[in-house]
Amino acid sequence: xxxxxxxxxxxxxxxxxxxxDLDLSIPEGDLVLVIGRTGSGKSTFLNLINGLVPHFTGGxxxxxxxxxxxxxxxxxxxxxxxxxxxxxxxPRAGFTTDTVEDELAYTMESLGFAPDVMRRRVEETLDLLxxxxxxQRPLDTLSGGEQQRVAIGxxxxxxxxxxxxxxxxxxxxxxxxxxxxxxxxxxxxxxxITVVMAEHxxxxxxxxxxxxxxxxxxxxxxxxxALAMAGHGLQPPVVRLxxxxxxxxxxxxxxxxxxxxxxxxxxxxxxPLRRVGGHDVASTADTSVRFGRTDALRDVDVSLRAGxxxxxxxxxxxxxxxxxxxxxxxxxxxxxTVAVGGxxxxxxxxxxxxxxxxxxxxxxxxxxxxxxxxxxxxxxDHDTGQPPGSALARLADLVDTVDPSTHPRDLSAGQQLALAxxxxxxxxxQIVLLDxxxxxxxxxxxxxxxxxxxxxxxxxxxxxxxxxxxxxxxxVGDRVIxxxxxxxxxxxxxxxxxxxxxAFAPQVQKVLSPLPVLTxxxxxxx
Length: 526
Prior knowledge:
By secondary structure, the chain is of the alpha/beta class. It has helices at about 40-50, 50-55, 75-80, 100-110, 115-130, 145-155, 175-190, 200-205, 225-230, 235-245, 255-260, 320-330, 350-355, 375-385, 390-400, 415-425, 445-460, 470-475, 495-500, 505-510, 520-525, and strands spanning about 1-10, 20-25, 30-35, 60-65, 70, 85, 160-165, 195-200, 210-215, 280-290, 295-305, 310-315, 335-340, 355-360, 430-435, 460-465, 480-485, 485-495. Helix content is about 35%, strand content about 20%.
């Protein structure tokens, strides 16, 4: 179905190839998971399949990529559009219409399908992906999981034999991610569609994969998923637990691990304490925000304490980003009060704002103003009075694949996030607000990032992390606030919150329940 013959690719204005010596075949009807460090070339690999590389991106391609008998060098993306469906990291950015039904039909209209064929395929796709009840809904009213399913549906209506997915669950809450992965599994098993998927949150997807390609390995090839999880730092928690305890075979799923952990669950366990925090640094009181007729926040009362990492969780659309914007001062509430250091954050400007609040939004490109990574980092060092090279060093801690001469907007999504974190977490702000900060980060990058947050908390900073990444919360969190429909439904210490909710329980907790164990390190200490 898909054949790479001695393929290499070098971006324009670069001398070092991002991909080299790719020589492999992807069989029809497989779900292939592409893994690698942040910035290693996973998105480039995917775009070789749909022809966007090099026809859209430019650069130098060597070797041959063949998809369904077509050489992508001589067949531009429009020729491949009926064979390869693509869903990018941000499905909303790819929408071109206003409603679900119109979006599903758009690709077929572009390809000149007959009206009766279009109608039939729209109906089939609505049924296949569970979108019937949403057919007339405006796209901007959908949750993240619903948008992701619509994006996949829009790619499917043209009848492709290959589906290319770039981080399809990275922005989704656990329940929405399960819905999307179930839909993908149906496409593979019921329709024999070949799915090639890049993903960092391997704990969600590894058990579904038929093969794994490690893109930054010495000789990328199709590997058995269990064998592909050895010899590098990209293992999900359940695999790390299996390796640490010498289990054979190494489990890829909670179900398989739980069968091997029966003896461990009989141990007595006294969990270590997490930080309880000090005085209140920021608070909201009876805070409400409305968008038209929609209540994004309703009478929210929260307080954030010095020296504590608080995770803000909840399904897509629960109000997490709105609460972040209120605390950052970028959105005034419609009712209630907000205070950071005793002051209204919306009234803070310039140095007063920087000294009190550091904020990394979901779209980190909003923070970039210069034409190179080096210039962004240099400006940060100058503005904060730190030694030259400090911000670049922080960036290298998270991601070591960034060329300092690169324009920030030419970085991968994960690299852009790492750069935003490196330049924002540089001062002595009282409160740090991070909206989905691990999206696009690999496991080693998350370990380094967790170390940053630990050091900030120990220095007395209050940190609020809005995230769907339960594994990250299990490692670094002290406290969890859960929002649902704009209201606070949980405010508890991290262990109580994560062990009392199946939706938010990390893998190790699911394996060792009812023991209140959250991480691999805690499990190995039993």
